[in-house]
Design goal:
- Among the domains are: about 110 residues, no CATH class; about 120 residues, no CATH class; about 180 residues.
- Helix content is about 30%, strand content about 15%.
- It has 17 helices and 17 strands.
- Helix 4 crosses helix 8 and helix 14 packs across helix 15.
- The longest helix has 22 residues.
- The two termini are about 45 Å apart.
- This is HET-domain-containing protein.
């Protein structure tokens, strides 16, 4: 894609905060005889951000590097990605010049020093643009109709009129099936799969969404999503509203919410990078996993959304010698220095094949990462190691591969059961669910820490990782009712083939992943990672919300196995026993 670009790029002034802009010539502009009338003509202009020309910034997916189109740039024919060329073609005017910023052409991708500097400015480039266009690609799959009806839904102050209009347009309710498929394809477009668009979409002052020649404003998309979120009993035809829903819509909803939240904040009010990375990279309930062509960009692409980037001054770093493993480990060091001990709950296994082995204490953001079983730390109800103890935590790095921090070795894994790893998008397997509950019950019955009267209650709490907080005085009855209802439903499903009812308890079971029930040497019952082994130890780090499973690796060091739930220590109980606090090296 970058062939024959020698001499095309002149150095940008760092002091003047220069960027390049595509000066897109109008159709009426003079063109040499040998250049087809259909080829876009442009020049690359330097512009200082201190006094920039008004420009449109494009947010788009690069697409396959094999699919290119010709464009005349400064009197030389260049090849650019077909998707960028299609976006520029939509902006092409008959008589007026248009200034556009698109990273593929405006940044010298072969100059790593320039790329580092330009990437560090990208937040400002999109923030300062006169407008940002989120380019979803050429029109296809009824995309014009989808954007038209998004606009119509956004105009609704009440639900009835829009519902009837849509039904009139489609003729019959059954015909909405075509729009259901079209809307699903709209939500699955390549644009939404690209990680960089999160920052570009979020920081823009004026944002438009374009697909082919159709264009809507961001506010129209946001209001349409509000309409689709209306309760079923409010709308005239709830089946119609359901037709405009998609499992792939989860990411778009989150993106809209993030933009709205960001636009209300500034400076120190912005979330820390740790929270931004988690919100951007952790898979949603639809298993969505955003992509980047460079694995290092899984951190670099969201830097601009954080309020503490000053603590990560080495980023971005595109040096050829800097691997993505280096970037993830350096990010983990930064998060740990800030006191984010529960970064460990994002260290999930098995890991992808890498050029070298990453430290187990650094999350591998290149691999699909699921939400922790105990929830994100800022939402977690647990306080296993946080009761008046965060100030006592001291984190150091003895060498480039290790981290040392204070913790308490609570117990050792004695025995464990089968793996519980349900599909989030499918109904629960009734037989597997009953087996899972039976194994937990057996461990509770064998435990000296669980009384006979509490076996069922503890089983219920362990089975869902105690994901539901105590919201009433009769929380015991609440748990037992939910548990017994689920067991009855599983038996009916297994014996009679009936569908399992979706309840808060069955949902709690379904949201878990990669768990095994286990019992410790002294009788603690809990859930641990599915790859734990007998002899692994349970640890509570000072300042951590949840316990962790560690594996002794010799000479007093450990490797991290993963997050755990251990009934009886999740709310700081272990800290009340004057425990032996040790310096643990991972």
């Amino acid at each position: 894609m970058n062939q024959s670009r020698n001499g095309l790029y002149k150095p940008l002034s760092v002091i003047e905060k220069e960027i390049r802009l595509i000066r897109l010539r109008p159709r009426s502009f003079y063109r040499p005889e040998q250049i087809s009338d259909n080829v876009l003509i442009c020049t690359l202009e330097h512009s200082s951000r201190k006094n920039a020309i008004q420009y449109t910034a494009l947010s788009y997916a690069w697409g396959s590097g094999n699919e290119t189109r010709p464009i005349l740039v400064d009197d030389t024919t260049q090849s650019i990605g077909a998707n960028l060329e299609a976006a520029l073609r939509e902006l092409w005017d008959d008589n007026d010049e248009v200034y556009v910023w698109g990273d593929q052409l405006c940044i010298n991708q072969d100059d790593k020093v320039e790329k580092n500097h330009q990437v560090s400015q990208m937040k400002k480039i999109y923030e300062e643009a006169q407008r940002v266009i989120a380019w979803l690609g050429p029109a296809a799959d009824l995309s014009d109709s989808i954007l038209f009806w998004i606009r119509q839904m956004s105009k609704s102050e009440g639900s009835r009129s829009v519902t009837i209009d849509i039904l009139d347009h489609h003729g019959k309710l059954e015909n909405l099936a075509f729009m259901t498929e079209a809307f699903d394809k709209f939500c699955q477009r390549d644009y939404w799969q690209r990680l960089w668009i999160i920052q570009e979409f979020t920081v823009a002052k004026e944002l438009f969404i374009a697909c082919g020649g159709a264009l809507i404003a961001f506010d129209e998309l946001a209001k349409a999503l509000d309409f689709l979120n209306l309760p079923k009993w409010v709308v005239e035809q709830p089946d119609m509203v359901e037709a405009y829903k998609s499992t792939s819509l989860t990411f778009i909803k989150g993106l809209v919410t993030r933009r709205q939240r960001y636009q209300l904040r500034s400076g120190d009010q912005l979330d820390p990078l740790f929270q931004v990375v988690v919100a951007s990279l952790v898979m949603g309930i639809d298993y969505s996993h955003r992509e980047t062509s460079d694995a290092r960009d899984r951190i670099f692409s969201v830097l601009g959304l954080a309020g503490d980037t000053g603590s990560f001054r080495s980023f971005p770093d595109y040096a050829p010698t800097t691997t993505y493993e280096d970037v993830y480990e350096e990010a983990a060091r930064g998060f740990l220095r800030q006191g984010h001990v529960d970064i460990f709950c994002y260290c999930q296994f098995p890991r992808t094949e890498t050029n070298r082995r990453m430290a187990t204490w650094a999350p591998d953001w290149h691999a699909p990462t699921k939400k922790p079983n105990a929830d994100d730390p800022w939402f977690s109800q647990f306080s296993a190691g946080t009761a008046q103890s965060i100030a006592a935590q001291s984190i150091t790095f003895p060498d480039s591969d290790s981290v040392a921090l204070q913790g308490i070795i609570v117990d050792e894994v004695k025995m464990f059961g089968s793996t519980w790893n349900p599909d989030w998008l499918s109904t629960l397997d009734c037989q597997a669910a009953l087996d899972y509950l039976t194994e937990i019950t057996a461990f509770c019955e064998d435990s000296p820490r669980v009384s006979v009267d509490d076996v069922q209650l503890v089983t219920a709490r362990v089975a869902i990782n105690e994901r539901v907080a105590y919201t009433s005085e009769d929380w015991r009855g609440f748990y037992l009712k939910g548990y017994n209802s689920a067991v009855d439903s599983f038996f009916d499903g297994f014996q009679l083939g009936l569908e399992v009812a979706e309840t808060w308890f069955t949902t709690g079971m379904k949201l878990l992943h990669s768990r095994r029930p286990f019992i410790s040497k002294t009788g603690y019952v809990g859930l641990g990672p599915d790859h734990m082994v007998k002899g692994d130890v349970v640890c509570v780090f000072l300042g951590a919300k949840t316990p962790y499973i560690l594996r002794p690796s010799g000479q007093g060091a450990y490797t991290l196995v993963g997050e755990a739930y251990l009934h009886g220590i999740m709310h700081g109980e272990i800290l009340e026993e004057s425990p032996d606090v040790q310096t643990l090296v991972l």
